[in-house]
Design goal:
single chain, 6-stranded mixed sheet, 14 helices, 33% helix
Length: 459
């Protein structure tokens, strides 16, 4: 596409500076992916102007789009200056031309919630596949087309440019796209102008207060899914178990409770669905699938795969081992209660930590939840990022009233310690990392997997 056509498409929304004709072949937001034939969107703020100017010495680009004007731009070639108000609209216009997608032919489902997004998304995938539909899922576990993993994504909800590229490259021949929608993405408008045929809100509890100022702000961020991204006449499902969440949302006519498993007269379930939170996830997925295709379904739940790192359960010589992504106080409580419910006569051993450079206020609350839910608590490292693991652990310990916990900083050693302390019939819960195959220490990703640690221990 010629740069003249770019100017025509964005007429009235951009001001060109030092412009000369070039051929444009792609739209980017990561400078490392940009070439001499790319349009690169680079968002400027007061703190990164110097970084921007320095990086431009080495970055290749054809046209660069910035969201504010300043005098140093005169030294750059082929600049388009827009405003914050037009920033995403400019992206959408260009994505519609470079990466078109038949939105009217593909159904979209958006799933939000503090916990449960990933499992619910995966259950919808499996139910729709059982109904002979082709499905693309986007979320914490990456991008999956039917059963095949296509991409590993770093964010639960990718930025708008990446999202549109995923649609264009991988979803042209599917019947349905199911997306996890994070509160961050709603505030940052990563799903700009996307409208969902069906939505769901799986749960709500404390998380992400490093990003949101308080719980109310976090809650209001999630309501944007209902207020801005539902098609007219569409519904947002809330699990029948989530009475408090439903009471906060029932003033929206689009919000409805799921059909409970009791109402469906479901008596026998695989072990994966014994927990109340996975029953909630199942209810949501079931109702979402039925309303999508406007017909009743009878899923063969015993043939379903467990969602990786979500109540993944293994048996080893009369010992039960559960690996789960639980990383909030509510999720720790839920996973412990689920284990007690499934194995009422067992002692519960719990290994967990908290992520660094994230919501510090939840750390003592997670300690309290762990102490209340487990018989034996092992506190260790998670993804410390740029914090000292020992400092994070001390924050967790502040929530403990008793002294019957064990601190082992190195995660694999903590798991080994707990594993060897187990007796026949005991349950070991390893919480916090789930599917993750890395540990972030001092900003560097190191190869690590809770699954691999257990595999080595059970050989």
């Amino acid at each position: 596409m010629s740069s003249d056509l770019i100017l025509n498409l964005l007429a009235g929304k951009v001001t060109p500076l030092n412009f000369s004709p070039i051929l444009v072949r792609s739209v980017e937001w990561k400078s490392q992916n940009s070439t001499e034939n790319s349009i690169l969107f680079y968002k400027i703020n007061d703190s990164n102007v110097e970084k921007f100017l320095e990086s431009m010495k080495d970055v290749k680009y054809g046209i660069i789009v910035v969201n504010q004007n300043f005098k140093e731009l005169k030294n750059l070639q082929n600049v388009l200056i827009t405003s914050n108000l037009e920033w995403l609209e400019c992206q959408k216009i260009l994505m519609d031309h470079f990466y078109p997608f038949p939105f009217s032919e593909v159904k979209l489902v958006g799933i939000t919630g503090t916990n449960g997004k990933t499992t619910t998304t995966d259950l919808v995938r499996q139910m729709c596949m059982e109904a002979k539909k082709n499905v693309l899922t986007i979320g914490t576990l990456g991008v999956k087309k039917n059963k095949k993993k296509i991409l590993e994504e770093g964010l639960t909800t990718p930025p708008y440019i990446d999202l549109r590229k995923i649609f264009y490259e991988h979803a042209q021949d599917v019947d349905l796209i199911v997306m996890e929608v994070s509160s961050h993405s709603l505030v940052q408008e990563r799903i700009y102008k996307l409208k969902f045929d069906v939505a769901a809100w799986t749960s709500f509890s404390q998380d992400h207060l490093d990003f949101h100022s308080n719980l109310d702000e976090y809650f209001q961020a999630k309501t944007l899914l209902i207020e801005k991204h539902l098609k007219p006449g569409s519904y947002c499902f809330v699990p029948s178990y989530e009475e408090e969440l439903y009471s906060k949302l029932n003033h929206y006519s689009s919000v409805i409770k799921t059909t409970s498993l009791l109402e469906r007269k479901i008596e026998k379930l695989p072990l994966f669905f014994m927990s109340h939170f996975n029953k909630s996830n199942l209810e949501v997925a079931w109702d979402v699938t039925e309303i999508l295709w406007k017909k009743k379904i009878n899923p063969d739940l015993f043939s379903y795969e467990m969602t990786e790192g979500r109540f993944s359960i293994f048996n080893h010589k009369e010992k039960m081992i559960i690996i789960d992504f639980a990383h909030t106080p509510d999720a720790i409580t839920n996973i412990c209660n689920a284990s007690i419910q499934a194995f009422p006569k067992s002692n519960i051993h719990l290994v967990f930590g908290c992520g660094g450079n994230r919501d510090k206020s939840k750390r003592p609350l997670m300690g309290e939840a762990a102490e209340n839910g487990a018989d034996y608590v092992y506190i260790t490292s998670d993804n410390p990022r740029f914090e000292k693991p020992e400092d994070i652990i001390q924050d967790i310990v502040k929530g403990l009233k008793l002294t019957n916990h064990i601190v082992v900083v190195k995660r694999e050693e903590a798991i080994a310690n707990a594993f060897h302390n187990m007796k026949a019939g005991d349950v070991l819960i390893i919480a916090g990392k789930g599917h993750e195959n890395y540990q972030i220490i001092n900003g560097v990703k190191h190869e690590y997997s809770d699954f691999k640690v257990i595999e080595d221990l059970t050989r």
